[in-house]
Amino acid sequence: MALQRFIKRIIEREVFAPIVKQAGFDPKKVDCRLNWGVPERPQINAADVVKLAEVSAQLNVPYVSPQEVRRMLVKMGFELNAEEEEVKP
Question: In whole numbers, what is the pLDDT of the chain averaged over residues?
Answer without folding.
Answer: 84
